[in-house]
Design brief:
The protein has 382 residues and is of the alpha/beta class. The protein has 13 helices and 13 strands. It has a 6-stranded mixed beta sheet with strand order 4-5-13-10-11-12, sandwiched between helices. A hairpin with a 5-residue loop joins strand 1 and strand 2.
């Protein structure tokens, strides 16, 4: 049984038919969110039933938008572990610190969650040609899931995207175009050509379903913490779908009665070479200005403008969180720190959360007694 009822604009609350492929709100141009019959879910679904379900993101089917399970396109999106980091915690003077290690997912990163959901819904809606601008990992994920579904994948990525991602997309049979520019430039190409080419745009938050895949990170954390959420979550932020998705599902979980009103402080970590969310937060703004001359070795953080900027900032403000920028040198040092202290081979974006944590502990923004979760969003790539 599906509890998915309709799509709703995250800004103006305009509603849309869930049976029709949708991108952004036609009224205000903001992201659309799937909505569910939460009161009915609260009556029908007990969390004790989870113990009998497969250990994958699909175990939370009642809060997901795929109506017919036959349409699920999966490469086995396993639940990812919370790794206790005792040595790193001790070195920082923190009592309880974990790394949520998303590198265990298919295609090697957290992007598998969002693209598994987007491709599954594309299949359910009868779509066959998908296009995406990507700095790397999302392209690999779309290429793999589209291959599994028998769909066309059209990838647009910067020329200096990681070789691993370029190669894996080509191996999976995707149509890959390298551009001289940033992910925002790639996004413009998709927007200009999608109607003529018959592509459906699966850009970050420009369709309603990737966020639903990403929100399963929040569902897993809630379950892994026995429905008592941690005090702080540090998340590397490019497009920010993970923060947006987790914040959305925490409200859904409270509404169905599985958690209380307590929320983690949501900390957005960016690079000093591309920090639009940090700048906006420091200025108390509700939207972020486009970042000029974006430069960082952490490809996933090189997003000059996020379509969901106001949603990221809402989560930060509402949770009493923060946004912090770290240098590329600090990221490299943090990669080594995480590997030598805990044996975790993190991607630069994941290591950025370690660098951010070090700064926040030093300034007293994070206290020794806080229960802290860092997100490693992918594995190390040479």
């Amino acid at each position: 049984m599906s509890y998915f009822t309709h799509l709703e604009c995250s800004r103006c609350a305009q509603t849309y038919d869930l049976n029709v492929p949708q991108n952004l709100c036609t009224e205000c141009g903001k992201p659309l969110f799937p909505r569910y019959a939460l009161a009915k879910i609260a009556q029908d679904w007990d969390k004790s039933s989870l113990s009998d379900r497969e250990a994958s993101m699909w175990r939370y089917a009642e809060l997901l938008p795929v109506i017919d399970p036959a349409n699920i396109v999966s490469l086995n999106e396993t639940m990812t572990p919370l790794l206790p980091t005792q040595q790193l915690a001790a070195s920082l003077g923190i009592e309880a610190l974990w790394v949520k290690d998303e590198s265990r997912l298919p295609t090697g990163s957290f992007k598998a969650r969002g693209l598994a959901m987007a491709v599954s819904k594309a299949k359910e809606l009868g779509l066959t040609k998908l296009a995406i601008p990507s700095a790397g990992n999302a392209a690999t994920a779309l290429s793999s899931y589209a291959a599994q579904a028998g769909m066309e994948a059209h990838i647009f990525m910067p020329q200096d995207a990681p070789p691993f991602n370029r190669n894996t997309c080509q191996l999976a049979g995707a149509n890959v175009t390298l551009i001289d520019g940033l992910i925002t430039d790639a996004g413009k190409i998709v927007a200009e050509r999608k109607e003529e080419e018959g592509w459906f745009d699966v850009s970050t938050l420009k369709e309603p379903y990737r966020v639903e895949g990403k929100k399963t990170m929040g569902l897993e954390i809630a379950e892994q913490f026995n429905w008592d959420l941690p005090d702080v979550i540090l998340y590397p932020t490019g497009g920010g779908t993970g923060i947006v998705g987790m914040w959305k599902v925490f409200q859904e979980l409270e509404t169905i009665g599985w958690i209380d009103a307590k929320r983690p402080r949501m900390i957005s970590v960016q690079s000093v070479g591309c920090a639009p969310i940090v700048k906006a937060w420091q200025e108390g703004a509700t939207e972020a200005e486009p970042w000029t001359n974006a430069q960082t070795t952490a490809a996933g953080l090189r997003v000059p403008q996020a379509v969901g900027d106001f949603l990221i900032l809402d989560a930060i403000y509402q949770s009493g969180g923060a946004a912090i920028a770290v240098t590329d040198d600090e990221i490299q040092e943090a990669m080594a720190t995480l590997a030598t202290h805990e044996g975790v081979l993190a991607c630069p974006e994941g290591a950025a959360t370690v660098a951010g944590l070090c700064k926040l502990v030093a300034t007293g923004e994070i206290q020794p007694e806080n229960r802290v979760v860092l997100f490693n969003t992918g594995g190390y790539q040479a």
